[in-house]
Design brief:
Glycine cleavage system protein T, transit peptide, five-stranded antiparallel β-sheet, 20% helix, CAF17_C, Gyrase A, domain 2, alpha+beta, single chain
Length: 270
């Protein structure tokens, strides 16, 4: 099957350059940035001090620093927050106007495999010849069962582990301190993970964001974003079994294959 290629107009780039670029970001983000090499890409997040997810991003190694791949409508906000943290660090922060492109189902030539899951395909910076629309990529992402943290997580609404960052290579628990590290490490260590974002299937159009998912008469979760026949929902892990409904329609919460490699207990504990 020939790989499809789409330009993601929902994403934008920030260049962080200068001699302190990598240590500066290493101390802020959930991912190890100091060992990043040019051309490599890693998935990461920037959290609030209490540990909630503010920004999801891909960090690309560059010869003069790093390039951040972020939600386009959040780029200015992220640049402002990075500038707030900059202090005396020798870094320059500015917009990079190259587009972000993806390929799927595989990693096309000139693309780098998505660091979250190989099944997501590849990512590339700079213009490529598009053979598909972004909506097709979004459908593929939902089929794989991976949340879009910006759309599904909102701003300062959820913890990164609830968005499966720990299962999608978005957190390096060995790197030491980062903003929000204490809460994130405690959730991982103590198994305090009661909810996760999971794909939800049903018949018909997607319910509005925030619509309750019920297990009998008990609230089991809420719909975040979706499309015909499926959505991402934030689900309580102790209420997945039983009869699920949304707007009176039968629904099923699905553990994607990349999540089912671990036991339910391991999923709940991260």
């Amino acid at each position: 099957m020939t790989d499809r290629i789409a330009r993601l107009d929902s994403r934008a780039l920030i260049r962080v350059a200068g001699p302190d670029a990598q240590p500066f970001l290493h101390n802020l983000l959930t991912q190890d940035i100091e060992t990043l090499v040019p051309g490599e890409v890693r998935f990461a997040g920037l959290l609030s001090p209490p540990g909630r997810l503010l920004f999801d991003l891909f960090v690309w190694g560059a010869d003069d620093g790093v390039v951040l791949d972020v939600a386009a409508d959040r780029r200015e906000a992220l640049m402002a927050r990075l500038s707030m943290y900059r202090l005396r660090a020798q870094v320059e922060i500015g917009a990079d106007e190259r587009p972000v492109c993806v390929s799927w189902p595989g990693t096309a030539e000139g693309f780098v495999t998505d660091p979250r899951l190989p099944e997501l395909g590849g990512r590339a910076l700079g213009q490529r010849t598009a053979t598909a629309e972004e909506d097709g990529w979004d459908a593929h992402r939902l089929d794989v069962g991976v949340p879009d943290p910006t759309r599904d997580g909102g701003h300062d609404a959820h913890f990164p582990i609830e968005a499966n960052f720990d299962l999608l290579n978005g957190i390096d628990f060995r790197k030491g301190c980062f903003v929000g590290q204490e809460t994130t490490s405690r959730m991982k260590r103590r198994g305090e993970i009661k909810k996760r974002m999971l794909p939800l299937t049903f018949d018909g159009p997607p319910p509005a964001p925030g619509t309750e998912v019920l297990n009998g008469e008990l609230r089991a979760g809420e719909v975040l974003t979706g499309r015909e026949g499926g959505a991402i929902a934030l689900m309580r892990l102790d209420r997945l079994d039983g009869t699920l409904t949304v707007e009176g329609r039968a629904a099923a919460a699905r553990r994607p294959h990349w999540m089912s490699k671990t036991s339910p207990e391991e999923i709940s504990q991260g």
